[in-house]
Write a structure and sequence with these properties.
alpha/beta, Lyase, Ornithine Decarboxylase, Chain A, domain 1, TIM Barrel, nine-stranded mixed beta sheet, 21 strands, globular, binds pyridoxal-5'-phosphate
C-alpha cells in the first residue's frame, strides 16, 4: 500500500487498518489500548536480509548482531535464535538475563556498555557471554581479574572511537572523539588500550568495535568509519604485531518513519561496507576480518505500530487542536527526547482524507508529554482508535512508569494470528516491589 511507509500495513475489506493482515480494530478490541503491535514477519525477514547480505558480500563471513536496546523481551530473542541470527548485542544485566531466559545462545552475545560494574562482569562470566566489548582500562583490569577467578579466558572486542561525524541528532551521535564511549584513535588512547589488553593474562582480544550513531541514511559515514578502522587494524599490526580477526561496525542504518524520509537499501549498505573493507584490507596487507553490524532500529522499527484510544478533542481557536490519548510519553518518549516525527491514522478509516491537524497529547502531568505536533489525521472523536506508525524500535524498550502508569502489552502478529509477547502491566505489578 503506497499510503503507508510500512510494508506490513494494509486496509481490510471494511476499510480498517491492518497489520500483517489482521484488522487493528479487532486487536484494539481484544487486547485493549494503549497497545504495541508488531508484525513478526517483518522482524524475521529483516534479520534474514542482514545475515544473507553478509553471507553474500563479506570477504570473511560475519553477520548481524541484533541491538537489544531497540526492543527487548523474550520473544525477540526466540525469534532471533530461530532465525539463526549471527548474534545479539546487550548492554545491561537485564538484557543479558532476558536473552538467557529466552534460550538465546550466550556465546553469540556481545556485551556492551561504557560502565560495566563488577557485578555486570561477573554476571556475564556466569552466563557464559561469548564476547565482552570492553570500553575502558578500568574495565579491562577488572575483567581480567574476574576472569582469572573463573579460570576463564574471556574473549573481547575493544570499543574504539573513529572520529566520524554522521550529521544526525547530537544525542544519538556516539563515534566522535568527544564521546563518553570508547577510546579515540586520534589521541593515541586506542593504541594504548590495545597494548594494555594484549598484556592482560585472562583476556583474548578478537578485534575492534565502533558505533558512529543512529538513524543515518547515507552509507558514506559507515564507509569512512570502516576505512579508519581498517587503517587502525593495520597500524596496530605494524606497531604490536597483533592482527585483529573481527571488526564490528555498530548499528545505525536509518529507518523511514514518514514518507519524507528516504529509503535505505540495507543490503546495498552491507555490500558497500564489505567492499570497502575488502579493498582497504588488501591495500594495507591485513587479513579481512569477520565483519559485523549491530542493527537495532532497522530490524524492528517498521515492524511496529501503537494503538491508542482518543479521550478528548480540544480546539483552541487561533492556536491548535489537542487530541488526548490513553498513552503518551511513558510508552513513547521519542518526541519528548528527539522531536521525532510520526505519521498517525484513524484506525477504522486510514485512507480517509486527513482534514484535521492535531497535537497528540498523552495523559501525563507534563506539557511536554506529546507524541507529536502538527500531525495530519482524519477527524477523530472520543472513543476512536488512533494508530501511530513505525513504533517498533525505542518505544517499548524506552517505556517508563511515569505517573505510575502501567506499560502497554506487546501483541505480535504472526501468520494472520495474534499472541501476547508481553502482557499488559497491572497496577499490582506496579506495587510489587514496594515494601
Ligand atoms: C544504539 C546502538 C546500536 C543500534 O543502533 P540502531 O540505530 O538502532 O541500529 C548498535 N550498537 C550500539 C553500540 C549502540 O549503542
Amino acid at each position: 500500500m503506497a499510503q503507508f511507509v510500512q510494508s506490513c500495513l494494509g486496509v481490510s475489506g471494511s476499510g480498517h487498518l491492518t497489520i500483517g493482515g489482521v484488522d487493528v480494530m479487532d486487536i484494539a478490541a481484544g487486547y485493549g489500548t494503549p497497545c504495541y503491535v508488531m508484525d513478526e514477519a517483518v522482524i524475521r525477514s529483516r534479520m534474514r536480509l542482514y545475515d544473507k547480505a553478509f553471507a553474500d558480500f563479506s570477504p570473511n563471513g560475519g553477520g548481524a548482531l541484533f541491538a537489544s536496546k531497540a526492543c527487548c523481551f523474550k520473544a525477540m530473542y526466540r525469534i532471533a535464535a530461530e532465525e539463526g541470527l549471527f548474534g545479539a548485542d546487550a548492554v545491561s544485566p537485564g538484557e543479558l538475563w532476558t536473552a538467557k531466559a529466552a534460550g538465546f545462545p550466550m556465546e553469540r552475545i556481545y556485551f556492551h556498555g561504557n560502565n560495566k560494574t563488577d557485578a555486570d562482569l561477573r554476571l556475564a562470566l556466569d552466563l557464559g557471554v561469548g564476547t565482552i566489548v570492553a570500553d575502558s582500562r578500568e574495565e579491562l583490569g577488572a575483567l581480567s581479574a574476574a576472569a582469572g577467578e573463573y579460570r576463564k579466558k574471556q574473549h573481547i572486542l575493544l570499543r574504539i572511537t573513529p572520529g566520524v561525524d554522521p550529521h544526525t541528532h547530537k544525542k544519538i551521535i556516539t563515534g566522535s572523539v568527544d564521546s563518553k564511549f570508547g577510546s579515540p584513535i586520534s589521541t593515541g588512547a586506542a593504541l594504548d588500550i590495545v597494548e594494555y589488553a594484549l598484556s592482560l593474562p585472562n583476556i583474548v582480544l578478537d578485534g575492534f568495535h565502533c558505533h558512529i550513531g543512529s538513524q543515518i541514511f547515507d552509507a558514506s559515514p559507515f564507509i569512512d568509519a570502516a576505512d579508519i578502522m581498517v587503517r587502525f587494524i593495520a597500524d596496530v599490526k605494524e606497531k604490536t604485531g597483533y592482527e585483529a580477526s573481527k571488526l564490528d561496525l555498530g548499528g545505525g542504518f536509518g529507518v523511514r518513519y514518514t514518507s519524507d524520509d528516504p529509503e535505505f537499501d540495507y543490503r546495498g549498505g552491507v555490500r558497500s561496507l564489505c567492499d570497502a573493507v575488502r579493498e582497504r584490507c588488501s591495500e594495507l596487507g591485513v587479513a579481512a576480518p569477520v565483519l559485523m553490524l549491530e542493527p537495532g532500529r532497522s530490524i524492528v522499527a517498521d515492524a511496529g505500530i501503537t494503538l491508542y484510544t482518543v479521550g478528548s478533542v480540544k480546539e483552541i481557536p487561533g492556536f491548535r487542536t489537542y487530541v488526548s490519548i490513553d498513552g503518551g510519553m511513558p510508552d513513547n518518549p521519542r518526541y519528548a527526547l528527539y522531536q521525532s516525527v510520526y505519521e498517525i491514522f484513524k484506525a477504522d478509516d486510514p485512507l480517509g482524507e486527513k482534514t484535521a491537524c492535531v497535537t497528540l497529547g498523552g495523559r501525563c502531568c507534563e506539557s511536554g508529554d506529546l507524541i507529536g505536533e502538527n500531525m495530519p489525521i482524519q477527524p477523530v472523536k472520543r472513543g476512536d482508535i488512533i494508530a501511530v506508525a513505525v513504533t517498533g524500535a525505542y518505544n517499548y524498550s524506552m517505556a517508563s512508569n511515569y505517573n505510575r502508569i502501567p506499560r502497554p502489552p506487546v501483541v505480535m502478529v504472526s501468520g494472520g494470528k495474534t499472541y501476547e509477547a508481553v502482557r499488559r502491566e497491572s497496577c499490582d505489578d506496579l506495587i510489587r516491589l514496594d515494601v
